Every structure is written in structure tokens, then in C-alpha cells.
Give the backbone structure.
Amino acid sequence: MNKKIGIQIKKYRLKKYLSLSKLASTAGVSKSYLSSIENHETNPSAHMIHKIAQALEVPVEKLLNSQVETLDPEWVELVSQAKEMGIQQDDIREFLAYEAWKRSEKEGE
């Protein structure tokens, strides 16, 4: 059961001051179904996640990823320079994934 989706849906619903009933109605789902998602009793399908994201007026990615971070302009510049130097996109992704892992390991200590 993916608890993050329910947590994110509830977070954005409350942020927009929407009741469970109002969001359910706007998304075209039942109130009990939406409640079961928020309470981690049901995993919504991709189609349902899309409908709920539209009703909340947020990108689907925000519901799927609870750690949406703003990119550091310095990192953006470094990635641009790496591309200009001919470093492949997959290599850049692997490096960034490694750096993110390293940072998470440090924070977990």
C-alpha cells in the first residue's frame, strides 16, 4: 500500500481548503473512495490519480513524489555545462542519483 499518495492528496486538499466531499465531486469519485485513498486503505489507479490531480489543479508528479525540491541554480548550471562538454544524459542522471543517495545517507546518520 503506497501511503505517500494518500498523504499528498490530503495535504493538497487541505492546502486548497477543500472538503472531502468537494474534492470527490470535482474529481468525479465517491467520497468514500477518496477517503479510503487518504486513509491508505486503497491504492488508486493511474487514471484516478490523474483525475484527482486535475481536480486539485496540481501536476500528477506532486501527488506521487512527496519530496519535490527546487533545483539549485548552481546544479542546473553544472548540468548544462556537462551537456555542453558532451557528457551523456544517462551519465549525468547516474551521478545526480548517486549524489542524492549520498546526501540521504548523510542525513540518516
Observations:
- The radius of gyration is 18 Å.
- The longest helix spans residues 89-108.
